[in-house]
Amino acid sequence: MLPNLGYGTLVITLIVSIYAIVSAVIGERKNLYKYVESARLALLLTFPLLTLAVISIVILLVNQNYEVQYVYNVTSSTMPTYLKVTALWGGQAGSLVFWAWLMAAFGSAVTLRKWDRDHDLLPWVIIVSSVTLAFFLIMIVVFENPFIRFWTLPSGGELVAMFAPAGSQLIHPFDGRGLNPLLRHPGMIIHPPMLYLGFVSFVIPYAFGMAALITGRTDDRWIRLTRRWTLVAWMFLSIGLILGSRWSYDVLGWGGYWAWDPVENAAFMPWLSGTAFLHSVMIQEKRGLFKRWNMILVIITYSLVIFGTFLTRSGVLSSVHAFAQSAIGPMFFIFIGLSFIISLAFLIKRWDDLRSEGVMTSLLSRESLFLINNLLFIGILVVVFWGTVYPLISELFTGQKVTVGPPFYNSTTGPLFVGLLLLMGIAPLSAWGHSTWKTLGKALWIPAIGSLILIVVLFVSGVRSIGALIGFTVASLAAFVTIYEFWRGMKARHKRNGENYLVALWKLTARNRRRYGGYIIHLSVVFMAIGIIGIEFFQTETQGRIAPGESLSLAGYTVTYKNLAEFDVADGRNVARAVLSVSKNGKDLGELYPRRDFYYDSQQPMTIPGVRSTVEDDLYVILVNWEQISSLGATFKVFHNPLINWLWYGGILLVIGSFIAAWPDPEKEIELAPSRIMRKETGNLVSKP
Amino acid sequence: MQDSTLTSPAKGSQKKFVFGGILIIAAIILLIITNTRAGAQYFLTVDEIKERQEEIIGKDIRVSGAVLGDSIVYDTENLILKFEVAHVPGDNDEIDAQGGLAMVLHQAVNNPDANRILVVYEGVMPDLLQNEAQAIMTGKIGEDGIFYASELLLKCPTKYEEAIPEQSANS
């Protein structure tokens, strides 16, 4: 029986992961290599085992084994096969198994690397990975078993259980409940795995950080070893967030892309601390500063990753991302608390070993600007955390549940985001060690003039919103500085090596992937900022009931209602689809088809907007209502969302930048940055831009 | 000048970083405090709104309630949506004790003695607005006792996970 096999596999995996912990601890304590090796093999074994469990779930899902509660809850016979497969992470139990499976995969991948120089770290990396894995497996095996089935008792009663109660019969429902139609969107189907990939891969840098703390190897080795992991984790988390935005933009029906919903915040918080971490590790590598801070950041990020999984799974805070409440909430809370306290205890123990190797001297130096960058990221994190838990805090202290809505987040994080964009424009030009306004100004004045011209043009063309003008100023400065950096590098290569500009650009980027990959990510952030400024400050809307032949006008566009048809589709939907023609300034631009799908299995309607996307803007039309006799007209709501597509372009560019920055570089495994080697030899600080 | 500061970093030179850091942190805290005050929304239940109607008129409120399907009226000409919600407990433990959200919503809708308020919302009717859905609304109570919602979120717990299938009796 497949459910029994699946469940058995989960239990065995749990035992194996506990064995890995015990064996690694013994091996570490008694300095017995064979125990560590055995633990390593045990961790490697968890991956094929969990793969078996995952395959069992997928087979049950695809074969429509509705006697299994999980399958019944997340699939229905009208769903296409790919949706049945992805229903693996469509519900609570399945997504926990999926999480554990990724954890096993990453844990295994890490233990497969060459450990020659870092053998002392290995047992602790195994222990941290296995503890995390074992925790999730306990949650699954004890509280959220995806394999429990429906049974009828001889007495006629019904219940859900893993194993057949005496004399009972399996219940085979005719059909499942199906995935919520709102979630049947390509973005939503790959959004959870992307987030989970990001979440889980952040466990690895944490494991190395802990290993370094516990063993006392408090040099930068752990940071160097996990640089790529961190970057890849960060990229997946970013993709997950952007896909979630895109989903809500397409599905939720008003063009909203971010609602500061607790579950969104839960995924955003580890991203914020992770981004701070990505930046501040560079200071440790280059200058030997911020060692304690980096440990704190990686511990916070790990806690937030687990907290994020907890928030999305427990129903502690109300959210549009409704999931059933469950018993696992308190367990998560205990696990987060314990791991956080233990991590801090190790950090305090090594506090003195993590002293900085130097001091910062100049307020405008690169490291100082990175420090401000970190403060701002953590500031935003604190704001988001405060807003998310504020209902709980206020209830605890005043007995009155008080929440803060999106306006709180927008007005509090807004200035901090502006500060970050501004730093993005200045920091790349400042030098390590020492910078003055004079040296900065020399590099900054050309891009600054560029932004100034842009703002004057915007002002003259009628943009009067202060927020938008400030936003465009800092965003364009960051963009111009980044482009200017590329240009300077290109020109230097062109002059020195006689390469043509394209070759120079290619080689420049290829030789300094981390730096220029990072710049491309900066550009992608500027793109996203442009999209966000566009929709936040310039969105307009109109609505109305119009008869066929009549039109609505908005932002130069005219949409004319042609007709509407209602029909059934084979996959269990009734579709009402309107046809509208779009024109701008008298020029015909084709048709839009906003529609309303009604899902018979879940008895739920779903509104799908008709969208015309260009670089400039989106015309976003919703079919609100219609009369049975279509000549009587239909009601439409029309949104004009300027620049919104830059948000999605930015997402794509971010992935490209991340790949460039993370691409492995086998011939260049530098132990210490040249500037730090020189400093160590001479005892002097040598700044190297 | 440059060399001297670099080779012998004076203690005093660190002060400016501490000062700058404190300045930024203070600014962030100030932002949080002022915006929390300005953006606070009281999370009330329907019962609490009925009780404290006088004192909360015009304040930003967030309320959750069970949607009464029969009361939904949608003026599609002007996109004005009106519906009633019935009281549900605000506390998660209380909801759990009464058999979970789906059960609580079901009982609230079918209990004629439960407190109800009329909600008015301007905009597109959300897909999930239906009988026994949980509506989470942000807005203000008017002097007429009507809740004017500016934001409307919906949750349908039955759409997600539930214990025993309804079809089971037939099989």
Provide the low-confidence segments of chain A as ranges. 314-324, 669-675, 677-689
Instruction: Estimate the mean pLDDT confidence of chain B.
Output: 79
So what's the oligomer here? heterodimer
Major sheet size, sense and barrel closure of chain B? 5 strands, mixed, barrel
What's the CATH topology name of the largest domain in chain B? Answer: OB fold (Dihydrolipoamide Acetyltransferase, E2P)
Low-pLDDT ranges of chain B: 1-10, 158-171
Total helices of chain B: the number is 6
Q: Assign the CATH class of the largest domain in chain B.
A: Mainly Beta
Q: How large is the radius of gyration of chain A?
A: 28 Å
DSSP strand content of chain B: 25-35%
Biggest chain pair interface: A-B, 76 and 64 residues
Counted beta strands of chain A: 14
Q: Any idea what the shape of chain A is?
A: flat
Provide key terms for this protein:
heterodimer; A: 689 residues; alpha+beta; six-stranded antiparallel β-sheet; four-stranded antiparallel β-sheet; 61% helix; disordered C terminus; B: 171 residues; OB fold (Dihydrolipoamide Acetyltransferase, E2P); 2 domains; 6 helices; 7 strands; 35% helix; 27% strand; disordered N terminus
